Amino acid sequence: MRYSRIRQKPGENMYITSTAVYLAELIKIIACLAVILFQKKSIERFWYVVNKEILGQPGETLKMFIPSALYALQNNLLYVALSNLEAATFQVTYQMKILSTAIFSVILLGRSLTQGKWFALVLLMIDDPIENTIDNSVVNTRSTTHPTSQLLLVAQNPLIGLIAVITSCVSSGFAGCYFEKILKTSETSMWIRNIQMGITGALFSFLGMIFYDTQNIWEGGFLQGYDSLTYSVVANQALGGILVAIVVKYADNILKGFATSLSIIISGIISFYCFDFHPSSQFTMGAIIVMISTYLYGRPEKSIIITTNDILKISIKS
């Protein structure tokens, strides 16, 4: 996504982010419908499920309005953030969504966090100001002969990027916990829920596209600036949204923790080779703290096993 936003050449139109978000929602709906069709193995059964669960229950679709609106906001903010921040810097800073998710999980899901988990979250909060003290010399060390060096310096505002990331973290935390509560307190299929969210998400994305980019779309076309890379980014966002729902329903914190840590390392390596990104000591420290705090938050607490003999001993002493 970062590369697709900074590789614009002189005279070329940049693709409009609101259209990319809207297309991602449509792809998500189509992918979920395809899964349901595969599961039901016939058009008749497929249509029965769609008619009963989606068309016949508009109230259930309305439940998805809140997370859909927040996810639409978040998806647009991701493009804003990655237009103004290095991909690796964004990846580390974006981990603050773990903190917002934890807070909303306590509020919305009634969970209680152990001292170890709160320590991990505090460690994550300490990381953010450390990571954002990256020296300007890191930016200045980019070679002027690098193919993307001039593009990286155009209209790049780290403050705007940081604000976009923080807002996205808050919206992501609330929307994720809200969606998890709906998924785990309902017997409705996860694929149906994704379609319901996709419908409302597409509506919000369409309204945002019309409200903000009508003139640009009218002048340059809906698919202006699109190429194979742009379509890949859109597809990745769409399928990634489905993957988030699968993680929420099936995966545990350990798997999410290791995936998050691995993604930070991969983002740093790719940014080094593709964007001439030179990590400073502060960034390296920040990345290490994120990985440690993510692991501490995700590891399982030691369970206390009480045997029958223990119960008997306690009863005798009593």
From TrEMBL:
One GO cellular component, as annotated: Golgi membrane
GO molecular function, a single term: pyrimidine nucleotide-sugar transmembrane transporter activity
Coiled coil: none
Source organism superkingdom: Eukaryota
Cell inner membrane keyword on record: no
UniProt entry keywords in alphabetical sequence: Membrane, Transmembrane, Transmembrane helix
Main localization, broad class: membrane
InterPro entries referenced in this protein's UniProt entry, alphabetically: EmrE-like, Nuc_sug_transpt
Topology relative to the membrane: Multi-pass membrane protein
Protein name (database record): 531_t:CDS:1
Lineage: Eukaryota, Fungi, Fungi incertae sedis, Mucoromycota, Glomeromycotina
